[in-house]
Automatic annotation (TrEMBL):
Span of domain Acyl-CoA thioesterase-like C-terminal: 164-277
Keyword field contains Hydrolase: yes
Name of the protein this chain belongs to: Acyl-CoA thioesterase 8
Organism: Ameca splendens
This protein's UniProt keywords: Hydrolase
SUPFAM superfamilies: Thioesterase/thiol ester dehydrase-isomerase (SSF54637)
A Pfam short name: 4HBT_3C
Amino acid sequence: MLDLKMLEVLELRGTHHWVPSAQRLFGGQIIGQALVAAAKSVSDNLYAHSLHCYFVRPGDPTVPVLYQVDRTRDGRSFTVRSVKAIQHGQPILICQASFQVLQPSPLQHQFPMPVVPQPEDLLTVEELIQRYLSQADLTESAKQGLNKLLANEVPIEMKPVSPAHFYRFASGEPRRLFWARARGYIGEGNMKLHCCVAAYVSDYALLGTVLLPYSKYKARFIASLDHAMWFHSTFRSDEWMLYECVSPWAASSRGLVEGRLWRRDGVLAASCSQEGVLRVKPVTENSKL
Ligand SMILES: CC(C)(COP(=O)(O)OP(=O)(O)OC[C@H]1O[C@@H](n2cnc3c(N)ncnc32)[C@H](O)[C@@H]1OP(=O)(O)O)[C@@H](O)C(=O)NCCC(=O)NCCSC(=O)CCC(=O)O
C-alpha cells in the first residue's frame, strides 16, 4: 500500500487496498502515502521527525491519488517537503513533512509508558469478535455489526487492553489503549518506511476516542480534519507497540485527540495530535454496537 509508483521526479501515484465502510479513503493511508512521497525526495541520512496535515476533501476510493512534492527547503540539519495529495484535479490533503540528520544530545526525557498487560496476555480484535459472536443473547443487528467488523480486513493487527471500553459497551473516560502492529514482516533497517507505517496506524481508532464518554450517542458523521505527528526514536512498526489515545477536549461538533505510540520496552516512539468533526445522533435501539 505504501509502495508508490514514481510517475515523475516529484510526482507519485498511490492506490488503495483497504477502504473503511464509510466509503471515503482512510486518512491514515493518505498520510502514510504522503510521507512516503516526501521521504523519497530526501537523502538516506535524513529521518522523518514531524509532519502536519489538513484533510481538505474526502478521498475517493474509486480512483488513485496523485502526490505532488515540493522541495520547500534543504538545510544543514533540517529539510522540509510539502506534499499535495490530489484527486479529480483538487487537493484532498495538504501535508508538510520535516526530516533531520541524526543529532545526539544530552537533553533526553520522556513520560513513562502506561502499565498494561502484555500483548501475549490479550486477545486480537478477531478473537474478541468471535467470542462475542458465540454469545447466545446477541440481537440480529449486533451480529450483523460484528460480522461486518470481522470482514473488515484492516492491515493492522490489534489487541485492545480493555475490550468492553474499546467497543463502547459502556461509557468511560476518553482514553483508549491497544497494542498494534502492521500485518506481515517489514524487517529492520528501513526507518523511513517504519515511520510511514506508523503514520498509517496512528489514524486508526484515534478519533473514536472522543466518543468513549457518550455510549448513548453514535456517530452520524465523523472525519479527521487535521493530523500532526512527531517521531522520537527508532522502532519497528511490524512489532507490537502500545497505542495510547486520549481526548482532552470536545465541543462545537469537534474533538481533539492525542496519541502516543510506545515501543514495548517503554521507549516513546511517536506522538500525534488530531482534531476531527463529530456529528452524533442518539442510539435508539438496544444494540450493543
Ligand atoms: C470535513 C469536511 C467534510 C468539511 O466540512 P464542511 O461542513 O465544510 O463540508 P461540506 O461539504 O459543506 O459538508 C459535508 C457534509 O456535512 C454536512 N454538514 C455540514 N455542516 C453541517 C452542520 N452544521 N450540521 C449538519 N450537517 C452539516 C453537509 O450537509 C454534508 O453532508 P452530505 O455529505 O450528506 O451532503 C471536509 O473538509 C472533508 O471531507 N475533509 C476530509 C475529511 C477526511 O476524509 N478525513 C480523513 C478520513 S476520516 C478518518 O480516516 C478517521 C478514521 C476514523 O474513522 O477514526
